[in-house]
Design goal:
mainly alpha; transport
Length: about 725
């Protein structure tokens, strides 16, 4: 099997391919200052996760001050300037423009202003002073600019439009008319209350997302990603189209520790994309397979994307419940991609990996089993009822112990710790336990430095670099979360969310009445048809919004405006949020801003737009999954009214519909499919989303002519013995 690139090589790839990682090149001295600030940000979150969070507003304010201030230091105003190292001058201290230093300090001060005046907030909300409005204006304006630099124009433009709507409400027609707000009132709502910038989105990033991102980086650094890739190659590599299936299986496993689509694409794709190309896959298809599978990391337990942690706050549910609910939808994502890849491999006669390329499972585990200990510890803490950030703290500490010490001895310690946590002795509540194990990790680090061992220093450097890299991953999503707070704040201030919900449900009801009157054997009753069209509209908006907005922002916006519409039709909140979440994942492979697909295309030397379109097509194999769990909520396991009968029935129905739809897109089932066959089995997949015996029978009846002809066609193409 091809050797895995080093951590430094992977980090370089990500920086080249991910817009959120394209940092400004600066002289060595400035790089040390910026690195120190990034390390301080990670250290702050690591400490508070294990030893107690600060007061809510203070914690969010410190996080925001670091994030926005760092963005102005590490992202150039223009991407074209990022790769140029400028010398230090009077107007460019440390190679960074003077105005960026001013912006960094100004936004840090204005971000910390709200925590500073917290004791007087009760007198200020609704009656802001001139200084309050000035500080709020600085924060909002510079935050939008910071978000533009970090993730592009999409989200800032939506935020600007939202503020325009809030101020000029009297100019809008019909149902969107509202009295409008003054700039002072808007700043008051967005800056001084918990409904805007300092709202739930920022809080979740500051208390959950950052810690799990840091754990994922550390886990990858100690070799857990290599273990997952080895397992994937050993299990799936020898089947037809082997490297493509390794890509899917590897992305699923790597997705357990990384909620970043680009990181997943780069890490797994660095091995699988070249192997797919050597096997005969077209370059754009190889890149599309990897990027499509990689996006599933955001919905793969136990460590999902930021949106999963937002669900914890929005729904007031334990994170463990979200993890359990995500298991089957995550499986369906990878199954959908797998089916299309399998049919593509059969259609083109692709073979699997050779014995020389595919490792043995026993050898993989013998080499890397110790690296799974921190993940085991994290899961044990998570499912023992403690907070997600405390689970992440123990996972990070476990990574430090395993990465700094001898792997096998440290892993035995971490496994013992995890078992102790799971025991009914309230292990983590014993005074000093957090301190003792954290101290052990830092003593090992100090030993590596003081003993002047080359290996020890290398391990210490790896851990420090991982802490810095974790902060780099987090600043982009931190800025996006704060800017999304503007959109959420405008929705709560103007009530536009309920207006949009009313429009969507009214339009869906009209469509339902029209279609049910035209089609004699329409499988939906009026209520189900209205729900179906509401879901269809919501899914389409999620996909369109994903063209220019990251997954997390997509989820928050759609939950704010679409979840009420689904709630009006009786959809459980957990189900509604998962529907939006599942479709929002498509954002990273939705052209024209498909960053995961473009990352894969760059690695494969393929056309980016063609790769994005192919990745989007591959993802459509599982497009019916959210519809199935809306009509059969038991598929999420944690939804109210769960029954095993409904779970088994809906899962089987979903698998059948994905298989038929994937075959229709690929043009192959058991043999080549004619166009009429592709259309018929795609149509047959639709009734199955209801997951009732009648709907499944209708689907099978529609598909039966194609299935019978495929069996005959396959027999006729089999060569005689």
């Amino acid at each position: 099997m091809t050797s895995q690139p080093s951590a430094a090589e992977l980090a370089k790839l990500e920086e080249e391919l991910d817009p959120e990682m394209q940092f400004r090149k600066v002289p060595h001295g400035t790089a040390l200052i910026i690195g120190g600030l990034l390390l301080a940000l990670s250290a702050f979150h690591y400490y508070t996760a294990g030893f107690g969070l600060l007061r809510e507003t203070t914690h969010r304010g410190i996080h925001l001050a670091f994030v926005l201030g760092l963005i102005f230091l590490v992202f150039s105003a223009r991407k074209s300037q990022s790769a140029i190292v400028h010398p230090s001058t009077l107007l460019r201290p440390g190679g960074v423009p003077l105005y960026d230093w001013v912006f960094a300090v100004a936004v840090a001060v204005s971000s910390l202003y709200v925590p500073w005046i917290f004791e007087d907030m009760v007198f200020r909300v609704g009656n802001p002073s001139t200084l309050d409005v000035a500080m709020g204006t600085i924060t909002i304006v510079l935050m939008i600019e910071a978000t533009r630099r970090a993730i592009g124009w999409g989200l800032p433009l939506i935020a600007l439009f939202a503020m325009t709507y809030a101020i000029f409400g009297t100019w809008f027609p019909g149902i969107f008319l509202h009295p409008g707000a003054s700039w002072s009132n808007l700043v008051n709502h967005l800056y001084l209350t918990s409904q805007g910038v300092y709202g739930v989105a920022l809080g979740v990033v500051a208390t959950y997302v950052f810690h799990f991102v840091l754990f994922g980086v550390l886990a990858t650094r100690i070799g857990l990603g290599r273990l997952f890739l080895g397992v994937a190659a050993a299990v799936a590599g020898r089947f037809a189209g082997g490297p493509a299936k390794v890509s899917i299986f590897g992305s699923a496993l790597f997705g357990m520790i990384s909620g970043s689509s680009v990181a997943n694409t780069v890490t797994v794709g660095s091995l699988t994309i070249p192997m797919m190309i050597r096997l005969g896959y077209r370059r754009h298809f190889a890149a599309a397979v990897e990027s499509t599978a990689a996006t599933g990391g955001q919905i793969t337990p136990p460590i999902m994307g930021a949106a999963a942690f937002l669900m914890v706050e929005f729904l007031n549910l334990p994170y463990a419940s979200i993890v359990i609910a995500a298991i089957i939808p995550a499986f369906m994502h990878f199954y959908g991609v797998l089916m299309q890849v399998h049919f593509e491999a059969r259609k083109n006669g692709m073979k699997g990996m050779t014995d020389a390329d595919a490792p043995k499972l026993s050898e993989v585990f013998a080499r890397d089993w110790p690296t799974i200990a921190p993940l085991f510890a994290l899961i044990m803490v998570l499912f023992t009822g403690y907070t997600p950030y405390l689970a992440a703290f123990w996972g990070i500490t476990g990574c430090m112990l395993v990465g700094l010490a001898q792997h096998r001895a440290a892993s035995a310690l971490v496994f013992a710790l995890a078992i102790g946590i799971a025991a009914p002795t309230e292990f983590l509540r014993v005074p000093g336990v957090n301190f003792a194990f954290t101290a052990a990790a830092f003593l090992i680090m100090a030993h590596g430095v003081l003993m002047k061992s080359a290996e020890g220093r290398k391990r210490v450097d790896d851990m420090i670099d991982a802490f810095i890299l974790g902060a780099k991953y987090a600043i982009g999503v931190g800025a996006a979360a704060a800017t999304v707070g503007i959109i959420v704040g405008v929705v709560t201030l103007t009530g536009v969310g309920f207006k949009i919900s009313w429009i969507v449900t009214s339009l869906a009801d009209q469509w339902a009445r029209g279609v049910s009157g035209l089609i004699p054997f329409f499988p939906f009753d009026l209520k189900s048809a209205t729900l179906f069209f509401t879901l269809l509209l919501t899914g389409l908006v999620c996909i369109l919004l994903g063209c220019g907005v990251p997954t997390t922002a997509n989820y928050i916006i759609m939950v704010t405006v679409a979840a009420p519409a689904l709630g009006m039709l009786g959809v459980n909140p957990l189900v509604a949020h998962f529907f939006v979440f599942y479709y929002g994942v498509l954002a990273d492979i939705t052209p024209p801003v498909a960053i995961a697909a473009y990352a894969g295309a760059s690695m494969a030397g393929a056309d980016p737009f063609k790769t994005g379109n192919t990745a989007f097509r591959l993802a459509l194999g599982k497009v019916l999954v959210p519809f199935v769990f809306v009509f059969s909520p038991s598929m999420l396991i944690m939804a109210p009214g769960f029954t095993w009968t409904e779970l088994v029935g809906s899962t089987a129905s979903c698998i059948a519909s994905i298989t038929l739809l994937s075959a229709a897109f690929a043009g192959w089932f058991l043999a080549p499919l004619a166009m009429w066959e592709r259309l018929l089995i795609a149509l047959a997949a639709l009734p199955m989303i209801l997951a009732t015996p009648t709907s499944v029978l209708i689907g099978l009846a529609l598909a039966s002519p194609v299935l019978l002809r495929q069996v005959v066609a396959r027999k006729s193409t089999v060569e005689p013995a």
